[in-house]
Specification:
Blueprint lengths: L2 H24 L3 H4 L4 E7 L6 H15 L3 E7 L2 H13 L6 E3 L13 E2 L34 E2 L4 E2 L9 E6 H8 L8 H18 L4 E4 L5 H11 L2 H7 L9 H9 L8 H16 L9 H9 L3 E7 L3 H7 L4 E4 L30 E4 L5 H11 L2 H11 L34 H10 L10 H46 L6 H29 L5
Parallel strand pairs: 1-2, 1-3, 8-9
Antiparallel strand pairs: 3-11, 4-11, 5-6, 7-9, 7-10
Length: 529
């Protein structure tokens, strides 16, 4: 097939998809137009075991209260969720509610969603009869809905009952068979020794058992968490007098201004730590599919698996052995070795909901969609959802129960240090070369040489994009500031519009100050080029 023919076929396919979407937008299902029955649709990518069933239960609860409404759940695989969502948004036929995230939270798309900023200041009527009765909806969430506030539009675009932490799952029966007892490792040294013991057990018995099941979905996060233990003290030195962790931007700017190098002891030890963790994971884990890792664990071919709390129901459902969980064991602070760069074990941040459900502007039933959103995020329904789906509750006054108690965030310790594998060109550079850190062909000098050659350029590109993006955001938000000022001028004292205006001004000033500071630091680094 010629390149021209391929392009024409792709264009024809895209045109047919868009045409189908437009047709559906003009020819909705009969129940959407029926006067006595309203159909609400909500879409998400949460395919973990138990979550869809729990959503179905909440939908049936809502239908029981509202006989004239039918609720339809649309679960889309994460790999195709964004393109599916964009197609339906552009085609004018999106569901009433869509889960944000997975690149569907780009500011360009917010024109297609309806903000609920004013609604979150009002009480959730479905909390009547509970201790949250009369409390503003926003304040009924453990994070005060901060995670759903958009800095580009200064609006809140949704609410969610999803949250997550990471733990290491382990096969209790296999642990007892290999070690003689059912106790997970309590320190990094114990975990290294356990991995060696698993490999020895596999050689002696001829059974294909590995220490960890790993994939691109869990291995990198585990390595990143250990990396951050070694940059705690470095982060504190780069951020004196401030208990908050140093930001990624400030960390890269410090590198560009030669305040740390790849030869800094903390960085070298952080890469050593990545080597240790990488050796515990199966070869090629970063290219392996997530489902393969879970299947490997469920079939008893791996002792341990690092995964999220929302994976608990699926793991427990498919494993035919008792499952335990523990936090990844880190070194203890010491005067030498890995502990020398630590203040304490990494603390986990407070629970933050993710994947907010937002109302689409094309929804024919926005009032009913908002009501359904209030219903599923009420205290009673969050308690039910958490119990059914084995997820962490996000509404105030709902406690984690049963197996989920193991996943409650651990706030003890010290804020984790900065990382090189968060986002952008720097992450890509590290990930493309970290195969040199572990395995039989490990070559740390070659890894450091590759990073040394390209890290400055990657960091500069990342920071230039960040600074330019910040200034563009500030400039585009000037219209919001002026519009909010004029609307708030006639608002009652400390009314909703006045509060929004004050929030906009404070946020705008903070964004602008950070942008100018980072631009200055970036210019200062030019002397080292």
């Amino acid at each position: 097939m010629s390149r021209r023919t391929g392009i024409l076929l792709a264009a024809a396919l895209l045109a047919s998809v868009l045409a189908a979407g437009l047709w559906r937008g003009r020819h909705r299902r009969p129940e959407d137009r029926a006067g006595d029955v309203i159909t609400l649709r909500f879409a998400h990518w949460q395919l973990e075991g138990g979550i869809r069933e729990a959503f179905d239960t909440l939908a049936r609860d809502y239908e029981a209260r509202h006989p004239n409404i039918r609720v339809e759940q649309i679960a889309i695989p994460v790999s195709s969720y964004v393109i599916w969502g964009i197609t339906h948004i552009v085609g004018g036929d999106p569901p009433d509610l869509m889960e944000l995230g997975k690149n569907l939270n780009d500011p360009r798309f917010f024109r297609y969603f309806t903000p609920i900023t004013e609604a979150i200041e009002l009480p959730n009527p479905y909390n009547a009869g509970t201790r949250l009765e009369g409390v503003p909806w926003r304040k009924t969430f453990v994070d005060g809905m901060e995670s759903t506030f958009n800095l580009q539009s200064f609006d809140c675009y949704g609410a969610s009952i999803l949250a997550s932490t990471t733990r290491i799952y382990y096969n209790e029966a296999l642990m007892r068979e290999i070690t003689g007892r059912n106790r997970p490792p309590r320190s990094l040294e114990e975990m290294i020794a356990l991995c060696a013991r698993v490999r020895d057990f596999a050689r002696r018995t001829g059974r294909p058992i590995m220490p960890f099941a790993g994939s691109w979905a869990n291995g990198p996060d585990m390595m990143d968490d250990y990396f951050r233990t070694q940059t705690q003290r470095l982060g504190s030195r780069l951020n004196p007098g401030n208990f908050d962790p140093v930001t990624r931007g400030d960390f890269l700017l410090a590198y560009l201004n030669h305040e740390w190098t790849l030869e800094s002891p903390e960085i070298l030890r952080a890469f050593d730590m990545m080597s240790v963790v990488g050796d515990a994971l199966p070869a090629g884990f970063d290219l392996s599919d997530r489902d393969i890792a879970f299947s490997c664990f469920d079939q008893g071919r791996a002792l341990m698996l690092s995964a999220y709390s929302q994976d608990a129901t699926g793991v427990l459902r498919y494993a035919n052995f008792p499952v335990g969980v523990f936090r990844d064991p880190t070194p203890a602070p010491a005067t030498a070795g890995f502990g020398a760069n630590m203040v304490a074990r990494n603390s986990e941040h407070a629970l933050i909901p993710y994947g907010a459900f937002t109302i689409t502007r094309a929804s024919p039933h926005p009032a009913e969609a908002l009501d359904f959103l209030r219903f599923i995020t009420s205290q009673r329904e969050d308690r039910k959802f958490s119990a059914l789906a084995d997820t962490l509750p996000v509404v105030v006054g709902v406690n984690a129960a049963g197996f989920m108690r193991n996943f409650i965030p651990d706030g003890g310790g010290f804020p984790p240090g900065p990382s090189l594998t968060e986002t952008g060109d720097v992450r890509m550079l590290v990930v493309q070369n970290w195969y040199r850190l572990f395995g039989p062909s490990a070559d740390r000098p070659a890894f450091l040489a590759a990073l040394s050659r390209d890290l400055s350029g990657a960091a500069r590109r990342d920071m230039r994009r960040a600074v330019d993006g910040a200034f563009q955001s500030v400039a585009s938000n000037d219209a919001y500031v002026e519009a909010a000022r004029r609307l708030a001028r006639d608002d009652s004292p400390r009314g909703t519009l006045d509060l929004k205006y004050q929030t906009i001004v404070e946020t705008q000033n903070d964004q602008e100050a950070v942008a100018y500071y980072q631009a200055l630091r970036l210019r200062q680094s030019d002397r080292f080029q």
